[in-house]
Amino acid sequence: MECNCPKQQYDRHENFDACIAHHKKVNSELFCLDLNRKQRKSIISTIAFIMALCLVLIASACNSFTDRKYKEITQMPIGDVDISSLDDGDYTGEFSYGKNTYTVVVTISSQRIQSVDLSVDTKQTNQEYVDKARVLIDAVIDTQSLDVDTVSGATRSSKSILKAIETALTK
Predict the structure, then answer these.
(1) Are the C-beta atoms of 124 and 99 separated by less than 8 Å?
(2) What are the Cα distances from residue 156, in Å, to 1, 4, 128?
(3) Which of 135, 78, 86 is nearest to 107 (CA)?
(4) Which residue, of 28, 99, 120, 123, is most buried by count of CB atoms within 10 Å of its CB?
(5) CA–CA gap between residue 170 and residue 55 (Å, rounded)
(6) Cβ atoms of residues 82 and 165 within 8 Å
(7) How far lies 148's CA from each of 17, 78, 101, 162, in Å?
């Protein structure tokens, strides 16, 4: 058996130990030298396939987690509040979802919701969704109820605003 040593050809029976010693010095070259181009290409393709498969599995797991969190917030119940039982004043409440915190100050006067001031600390949600969901505030004031439809395309922001208002009024 012969060695594919780039320095010299050694016969296995004559000086094979010298060849092995040389390859121990240049261990990384041994792998490449023992494989022909087709074998290396096959190994690289297999490694690329395994890496792609791992990325798909990771993305799938993240998607599953995101879907679960999405369902959790979109199906979250919002309790209705008996506004007629509330004293006049400002009520503060907040709701956190992910890295976002929705804070509201609800002003009650004459047993009616007069205003809702919203501030959102957004680290994850696009501000566009929060802006779309702000129309809920008018709906809550008009109906004097938290039983309003969420804004299509901004469901999580809508639910978060409603939950913050509910938290403020049920403290």
Answers:
(1) yes
(2) 69, 64, 12
(3) 86
(4) 120
(5) 45
(6) no
(7) 83, 10, 21, 9
Closest CA to 140 of 105, 117, 109, 113: 113
Which residues fall within 8 angstroms of residue 73, CB to CB, at 6 or more apart? 97, 155, 156, 159, 160
d(CA 156, CA 75): 10
Let me know how long the chain is.
171
Q: Is 95 helix (H, G, I), strand (E, B) or coil?
A: strand
- Take residue 73 and report the two structure tokens written for it: 């917030």
Hey, what are 125's tokens?
């949600």
Residue carrying structure tokens 């509330």: 86
Distance between CA atoms of 5 and 144, rounded to whole angstroms? 86
Task: Say if strands 89-97 and 100-109 run parallel, antiparallel, or are unpaired.
Answer: antiparallel
CA distance 159 to 109: 24
Interval 130-140 mean pLDDT: 93
Reported as a single tens digit per residue, the pLDDT across 86-115 is: 999 999 999 998 788 999 999 999 999 999
